[in-house]
Amino acid sequence: MPKISREDILVPADVMPEVREVYLDNMMAATRGTGHLMLFACDQKIEHLNKDFYGEGIDISDSDPEHLFKIGSQGICGVLAGQRGLIARYAPDYPDINYLVKMNSKTNLVKTAQCDPYSPQLYDLEAVLAMREAGCNIVGIGYTIYLGSEYEPQMMAEAGELIAEAHAEGLIVVLWIYPRGEAVTDEKAADLIAGAAGTALCLGSDFVKVNPPSPADGATSAELLKQASDASGRCGLVCAGGSATDATTFLTQLHEQIHIGGAVGNATGRNIHQRSLDEAVRLTKAISAITFGDYDVQEALDVFEGKEDFSL
Amino acid sequence: MPKISREDILVPADVMPEVREVYLDNMMAATRGTGHLMLFACDQKIEHLNKDFYGEGIDISDSDPEHLFKIGSQGICGVLAGQRGLIARYAPDYPDINYLVKMNSKTNLVKTAQCDPYSPQLYDLEAVLAMREAGCNIVGIGYTIYLGSEYEPQMMAEAGELIAEAHAEGLIVVLWIYPRGEAVTDEKAADLIAGAAGTALCLGSDFVKVNPPSPADGATSAELLKQASDASGRCGLVCAGGSATDATTFLTQLHEQIHIGGAVGNATGRNIHQRSLDEAVRLTKAISAITFGDYDVQEALDVFEGKEDFSL
Amino acid sequence: MPKISREDILVPADVMPEVREVYLDNMMAATRGTGHLMLFACDQKIEHLNKDFYGEGIDISDSDPEHLFKIGSQGICGVLAGQRGLIARYAPDYPDINYLVKMNSKTNLVKTAQCDPYSPQLYDLEAVLAMREAGCNIVGIGYTIYLGSEYEPQMMAEAGELIAEAHAEGLIVVLWIYPRGEAVTDEKAADLIAGAAGTALCLGSDFVKVNPPSPADGATSAELLKQASDASGRCGLVCAGGSATDATTFLTQLHEQIHIGGAVGNATGRNIHQRSLDEAVRLTKAISAITFGDYDVQEALDVFEGKEDFSL
Amino acid sequence: MPKISREDILVPADVMPEVREVYLDNMMAATRGTGHLMLFACDQKIEHLNKDFYGEGIDISDSDPEHLFKIGSQGICGVLAGQRGLIARYAPDYPDINYLVKMNSKTNLVKTAQCDPYSPQLYDLEAVLAMREAGCNIVGIGYTIYLGSEYEPQMMAEAGELIAEAHAEGLIVVLWIYPRGEAVTDEKAADLIAGAAGTALCLGSDFVKVNPPSPADGATSAELLKQASDASGRCGLVCAGGSATDATTFLTQLHEQIHIGGAVGNATGRNIHQRSLDEAVRLTKAISAITFGDYDVQEALDVFEGKEDFSL
Amino acid sequence: MPKISREDILVPADVMPEVREVYLDNMMAATRGTGHLMLFACDQKIEHLNKDFYGEGIDISDSDPEHLFKIGSQGICGVLAGQRGLIARYAPDYPDINYLVKMNSKTNLVKTAQCDPYSPQLYDLEAVLAMREAGCNIVGIGYTIYLGSEYEPQMMAEAGELIAEAHAEGLIVVLWIYPRGEAVTDEKAADLIAGAAGTALCLGSDFVKVNPPSPADGATSAELLKQASDASGRCGLVCAGGSATDATTFLTQLHEQIHIGGAVGNATGRNIHQRSLDEAVRLTKAISAITFGDYDVQEALDVFEGKEDFSL
Fold first, then answer.
1. Long-range contacts (CB closer than 8 Å, 24 or more residues apart) made by E8-12
2. How many whole angstroms separate alpha carbon B205 and alpha carbon D108?
3. Max CA-CA distance within chain C?
4. C-alpha angle with apex A266: A261 to A271, nearest 5 degrees?
5. Contact of B254 with B292, CB cutoff 8 Å
6. Kindly report the CA angle at A249 between A248 and A252, in degrees rounded to 5?
7. ipTM
8. D55, D84, D119: residue with CB nearest C204
9. Looking at residue E1, what is its pLDDT?
10. What is the pTM of this model?
11. Measured between CA atoms, how close is B229 to chain C, in angstroms?
């Protein structure tokens, strides 16, 4: 995965000329100069409440929210994605992390059986721009859409408007798109995941985070993912890391998503932060070795196990 | 179909004097100087998700979103209609296409049986004007109304306001109007299609896209369409191309819609982009030959089959 | 009905001093200098879709929307009321008509049994003012409220705000108020019509259009209408013309509404435009003869039948 | 009830310094320099439609809306409360009345059994301020909250914002608070009325209008009202006059509400305007004799019966 | 609990540089220079209507709203939290209290069984800033979120935006977060309380008020609270004081919440204001002795009983 130059980046037409260089700076920073994305997902304190951060199988260090920032600072990530307030509270002590502000969030208390999911926009972009202006290293924003929810219209509209505003200010955008709701019978069907990817493209996002499709008809998840990465066109596709699995399985999946499925990276949360600081830091490096450095699985495992280092 | 001159265009009273020339430019560009419309519909990646772009009977080239822009660039279209983000991503490499920004969209996941359809506005006009200002060749906007939906009020209001804003800035407007919802028992009844056409006129749209009515009482679809084209008055009526059919049938229908039904053109998506690039390009030319060049069906088929060329 | 002078007009306190003359101009124009109103209702292409304009018993000329403007131009009307877009499209060729922009509209597809009626505001007043500024002869606005609908709050709020804004800009206002919804058992009860009339007064409208009450307890519709015209106080009351009836009946009703019921005019659509141009023009003159000229029914019938002319 | 001086008025902290004198002027005017309130409620033409103004037992003069203004002008009232449009239409001829603009209203058509009550804000404060600026003698605004309705949030939010805006402009505020809705089993329970009174205080209102509590446990309504007048603290409490009763009963209740219940006045509509002009004028004077002049019931009855006069 | 200095305070990145000193002033004032919070909750006149202020077991002095301000003035509190209007009415006579404006409130009339809870924002921040500008000693704002309600999205969005706006103006923020609604089966489960605490952190609040968790599995409430105070990270956690209990129990719980549970203070209403002024004042001092002065329970009880004094 050779480094790219600024000239290789296709700047969309909604980035205003006066912030073109800002957009390029942000894209180069977020992708570490590769065009690929390694997103450390730190929005689950609202999304999953405290169950992702405390309990059996979770390292005790994860009970302190600062753990996330220590990992972000000592590990190798493209961006650390979290809600505006979380970032505001810790960024002054971790000024070098590339922050991506998650613009919406919901808890998991109301289940889909009760009510189709709606994750509301929590603040306007002005608040994010003010933080950036005040010196916080914000490179972009994120937003989650539950496609097929009865509240799809609200989320599509909020995302659609935010992307236009963010690009006009030189920020990059990542959409999380998950089909979910009474109308959705198979959230991980390959063609539906591809539809989500195409939707992100049409909304103008720079990257889209989707769940990897379920294997079907003898095809693996990574093979089926190719439909989605095709559909997303010039919008880079990354897969959600999902719940914790062992590192070998996890890194193998990631490698296949990129090299078979056409993904340009990944977006992982629990699998990283539920580990001790040292182990988590090594996992971010192993992920980045594959994503940014084009390592194979065994090399990446060596990085994870500390036998080898990876740096940019 | 002789060329028209700028003086032949009736400029509505809500086009502000200072953008009168811009409006005339856009109308002349979109109609290729004929007053007629050939709209290449590229909004289905959200509307129909990925099923229109990948699968049996669809050329593999359609799985890459850039396919749409190659057709738009190499073929002959009046406008390419797509969501703002899609256009933003590819327009820099295809600067000569006339773009029409689709302002709202929904997926097809929530069916009418679950919930009446609502397609939300995805961004405000400012975002579109900014792109135009930054050099993107945007000539107009589009919006879909599901008449008879319980959400008709929301869509009527969004469309009503957008049309006023767009005309005030010199942009042309196309409404897609489809009767749909629990209250609608026959979506393609001729008088209902005519009602949709009249609604578009009253909202101030320049063009309205409707489904062709069902044949009834011994009258053909094209004959019944006349009621709608009468009802739309000074708002030009075009028919949706619908699902893929063979070229002969398709071009025959188009010819009848114009010459019997009073349509001023057509709006076609799948029937074009599901084909290979070469075939798709030839189909746009065949359509344009009828719409812009007043060819008969056989001449247009010759264009489609490459036996004859059509250019403007 | 002698002519009034500008000094006879009671200018409400929400007309700002700097537009007082504009308001007086508009009121004198709309009432042809009489204080009475003859409103030609041309908003049904949305309200009733195409069934009012095409079919058995309807003159074929009514299938062309321009028919409305020909009548408005050649006949004698106080104002022609229609949606903003309709007016924008034809007003450049019919600059002398007094236009009243209908600010909200709904189709008749969703019936009250399915959902209480809501007719949404379709554009803000800015759009109307811009058209006026650009030279379009707009003298006022209109808005429909369905009193007793579960959506009464939305319509009351939209109307309440619009009236304030319109008066502040010197425009006159007509409210259409119809009791309708699950809660309304008798839409034409005299006391309910009177309640509607009083509501219009409290909202600040200049005129209110109501349905004539049903005859009851031995009293005629016109006699019962007096309760409503009393209740509307300084807000002038006019009756809806309703569905087509023969001219004699129609003109007799109108005369009684004014001379017995205390109405200051009428608001008629179908009864006019479903006729041929010549007949429709004569009917507008007959109506205006009663409304503006204080003709009796027989004299007005002579005007309708072309035996006599009426001009202002 | 001795006159108060401007220095006795506690100006709340949300009255901006630059309008402090305006607020004091308005408070002195509305309370006739006593700190007490006599509110003539003229908002029922929407709230109760025409049944309060025409029918058996109602003087025929009440069928003309101007009746309200004649009473307000010839009688003695603190403020005349009505919707913005009603005031706009008559205030030019009755410039000396102190007007209080009712900011929201609903009809009584949709009953609580069908839908919890919501009375929507009908115009923004700008419209009211413009009228004041243009010379209309507006001293304050009013708003109704149905506490315990499922729409309580909307009304609380509209009231909360309006009070802040009104005070910032020097206007006084009266809240009407009535517990009503599916959740409310006893609308006139003393502790609930007290809760309503406390709510008005917390929202920042200057006065609150409540229904007098039902007698209970051997205590009279006036005795139980004391809990509410305590709870409202520095927000003055007045009772609704309710439906028409004979003058003796009415004035006795009023006297007890003030002298036993701690009220600072009353808010009466029907009981006044359903009478002939002369009788209505005398009743306003009798009420004001108790409220502003500290008359006892017999003295006030003498005023009502014309045996004695009351002036300020 | 030694005093802290301004340098010890971690200023979040959304406090704009030009108001950094204002924020520090507010934080030092609200925490009495300790970083700890003693919040006197005075928002129940809406939340609980009058039942918290009048009745058996409640000192009669509590029926007068001014009681709250006397306590706030004579006792020792960090902040007095109440609705904007309540503060506006009394603050001019109690200028030295640190006020925290509660931005939303609802009554308890509509129960969760009828409808999930929604507490609406009652005024925008502009209204609060204007009061501060006019001299009112406002140091921060508060907002309640019912996590797991079907209206969670509305409250999350209102809180999220308000926090950004408040910090940008140098105000501190306290969130009240209570899990409640059809979806919530155990409102006081320790992991859910911890989820609420983490949510407050992610939204950017300075402090979060939660209910103490229910004891479970042999662990005390205070022990289980530790999970929540960990989860809230740099957002200080305080517990609601709950319904009245005897002072010994109450102060013991408070001490344990701080010293075992990791709380940084408390937020108490009824337990204070339902007492006589003298007793209430002593209780605030006892609470502050623990919160600000690091007293043990016995020492605090001595303060409460007047055997010892506590001052800052």
1. E8/E35, E9/E35, E10/A89, E10/A92, E10/A93, E10/E234, E11/A92, E12/A85, E12/A88, E12/A89, E12/A92, E12/E167, E12/E204, E12/E206
2. 39
3. 53
4. 120
5. no
6. 85
7. 0.96
8. D84
9. 55
10. 0.96
11. 9
